Amino acid sequence: MSIMQQSSKAQDRTLGVWFQNIQQGMVKLPRFQRFEAWDRGRIASFLNTIINNLPVGVTLALEVAGQEKFESRYIASSDPAQPGTVTQHLLDGQQRLTAFWRSMHNNYEWETFFVYLPQFDRGENKSGSEVEIRCIPRWVNKHQLRMPRWAEEPAQCFKRGLLPVNLLRPGDISTEIDLWLNDATKPLEPADTDPDALSKYKTYTATRDKIKADITALRERVTHFNLPYLSLPADTSKDVALQVFINMNTNSKPLSLYDIIVAEVESVAEKSLHALEASLNEKCPTARRYGNVSDLILSTSALLQEKLPNTRGMIEMDKKQLLANWPKLERGLERMASFLDSQRVFDEARLPTNAVLAVIAAAYELIPDYGDFLAKAEKLLRRYLWSAFFTDRYENTAASRAFADFKAIKAVLKNPGFTDAELTTVPALNRSEFPLADVDSLMAAGWPKAAGIEARAILAVTTYLGAIDFADHKTATYESIQKREYHHVFPDSLLSEAGIPSYRALNCALITWKTNRIIGRKDPLEYLEERVQWADEKVVCERLKSHLISYDLLSKAHYSGLDGDAFKQKLEADFNEFLRDRANLVVTAMNALAEGNSPALETLWATHLAEKQESAGVAL
After folding, report:
1. Sign of the CA dihedral 223, 229, 232, 238?
2. Distance (Å, rounded) from C-alpha 239 to C-alpha 371?
3. CB of 147 within 8 A of CB of 119?
4. CB 170 within 8 A of CB 164
5. Residues 581, 550 contacting (CB under 8 angstroms)
6. How far apart are CA 453 and CA 13, in angstroms?
């Protein structure tokens, strides 16, 4: 067994040397590194550490000798005109050195950094007593001027005791400093005709010399500030370098699985997954409505390689195959988003379970763009989607169950002549194992703004059927639904007074308001009428029907003059009748959707009313 090499020791390097190396293009970032992440507070904190000469953690660099091991990029805004030979790849410390480089040029669009020097603050009330970094937020006004204007004027900055941090930039910038000093101190310079001009000029010169001395002292502190680094030798293998990168990354936001896979893809294929993701977002922008695109990429890629869509499966993926499958991935995610939109499931907030996303996206690998088989295959996907929404298939161990469903769907799709009898091979469609929800379970489903599958499924049925807005009569769309709120049909205040739980999915409608909220003990229709300012009864009835809400049941829900047990008993009876009636309508729609059909609103209501009449006849 060979003796292990001693662990690396931190080596000293001043910011002056770091600056020079970045300036000459000798230090670059591997492409798998995340982009800038620090906000203005973190940047100011780091600069304060520097000017106060406090210690910071080490950075990590991979030595480069000859050919670069990784595809690389320059630190933001540092692209040199005549780059030198790359000698190091920065594996850890990107945020610190990017913040240092950019602040030393003060080239942030929305902020400018200054050093506050209280001894030069000529304001009526000094704004501080300590030397410190200050960040001034910037914006552009309607005249395209960068505001505040005083931050552009050296005299106004100096009056406030503020020195731009770019004057602390390492290197010979004496001309730039003198020009700034001339402008900053111009208002202090006495005219030749002033009484005691000579005495005043001496005071002016002393002030100028003092600020110049302070600038020089700060510049020395910055240039000689030690930012140590650990070094990996140039012959370190790529996989070892990546592992060290993952272990050493000190970003405040821990590396995600996606970051690690980005690094691994870079390692085996020398392609940037970040760039591919950006391209995917551009080509199919609707996919991001349904969840984090990085997660969708990984889970779908895992299924395309017949791996579990979880951490283990994603790590086990062949990273070269991931790239080879990229066209299938893009096509699958684009068609998945289009399919969900066709089912009027509009976004992540309204999605009952995200377990279906990768399954559907990966299944499109076997589905053509047109023809009879497209219709047949998408009917299978509709059955799968709504079965996933209205069974407990994905309440637990969602990844392994999604994997099993995908493999079964894939096997069915490989046989274009498949029959309905074969569909029970897909676990989610096997009703003996995973029966659809019934009226009682739907009545117990909680509030759909939370993440409950069944609760959101109920809401999804109403958006599928149009969910016409009570206020503006618009059918539900992705754009319109962003402005809607989760509304209690039977008001929460009314039910709470009787001690009846109001947060039930069947007591929820997704609508907008025309008026401000009026909270009080009001009957459902009275409450709605005040809030929505609706028109005639026929229009009201039509809008309610699109949400599977019975106008007749709401119109008889009156409680004025009632209190005590009489109030509670009537309200409880009316509310339960309302929930059960709506649950029956949802079940009818659910059964049709889970069979892959496309139920029409009028047909649902006609069937429902016929069943109610038949039931009433039997009761008589």
Report:
1. negative
2. 46
3. no
4. no
5. yes
6. 55
Residue-wise pLDDT for 338-369, tens only, equals 999 999 999 999 999 999 999 999 999 999 99
Report the alpha-carbon distance of residue 126 to residue 573 in Å, rounded: 69
Query: Confidence class of residue 197 from pLDDT cuts 50, 70 and 90?
Result: confident
Both tokens of 374, joined, read 């497209």
Strands (E), 412-463: none
Contacts of 515 (CB under 8 A, 6+ apart): 530, 531, 532, 533
Q: What is the pLDDT of residues 371-387, one digit of tens each?
A: 999 999 999 999 999 99
CA atoms within 13 A on the CB side of 77: 15
Question: Would you mind telling me the total number of residues written for the chain in this entry?
Answer: 620
- Residue that is written with structure tokens 């009433």 in the block: 616
- Starting at the edge strand found earlier in the chain, the sheet holding 111-121 runs 132-137, 111-121, 160-164
Average pLDDT value over all residues in the chain: 89
The Cα 149–Cα 139 span in angstroms is 10
Lowest mean pLDDT among 142-156, 170-184, 308-322: 308-322
Q: How far apart are CA 406 and CA 403, in angstroms?
A: 5
Q: What are 139's strand-pairing partners? A: 147
Identify the bridge partners of residue 230 per DSSP, sorted by sequence position: 60
Entry pTM:
0.68
**Token pair in block for residue 72:** 């690389």
For the chain, helix (H) and strand (E) counts, in that order, are 25, 12
